[in-house]
Amino acid sequence: MRLRTAGVLLGCVVTLVGCRPLYVPPIPASIQGEERVTLGKETTLSVEGQRFIVAIALARVPSAGWLSVQWFDPAGRQVAADSTWIAPDDEGLRRQLVAPPTVVPEPGRWWAIVSFDGGLLRQVFAVVTEEN
Could you read off the pLDDT of 13-71 as tens digits, one per residue? Predict the structure, then answer.
């Protein structure tokens, strides 16, 4: 009986030792993320007159590329899009993109998405009421 118990115990020990990893990957000293375009908190969507305006504050622009804006109506349909070229020299500046005159404000929650090279940067909202 003792021999049998010792055999089972030895088998368990061998099995558990065999489950240990043979290689522990090294942990890098530091992981650097890629630099991205950053927008300031002053980036907003507003309605002036009968036009939607996205005011964009460029906080950081590490590389040149297309900055895009898409406007969406309260039903969630894309109603317009526009883009502008930005470069590192534009850092700290403000840009305004205006929706075309074919976009007529109707009551509800409108939003615009600001993106750079296909990556989402910011989503901004504006509520249009009957008084606007």
Answer: 666 655 666 667 777 777 787 889 999 999 999 999 889 999 999 999 999 999 999 99
Count helices and strands (H / E) in the chain: 1, 8
| Angstrom distance (rounded) from CA 114 to CA 130 | 26
Q: Are strands 44-48 and 108-116 parallel, antiparallel or unpaired?
A: unpaired
Reading the block at residue 76, the tokens are 């969630």
Bridge partners of residue 107, in order along the sequence: none
Angstrom distance (rounded) from CA 2 to CA 72: 77
**Could you tell me if 82 and 39 are in contact, meaning their C-beta atoms sit under 8 angstroms apart?**
no
Regarding pTM above 0.70, the answer is yes
User: Read out DSSP for 14-65?
Assistant: HHHHHTS-S--PPPPS--PPPP--EE-TT-EEEEETTEEEEEEEEEE--S-E
Q: Which amino acid is at 22?
A: L
Two structure tokens written together for 2: 């003792």
- Residue at 82: amino acid letter: D
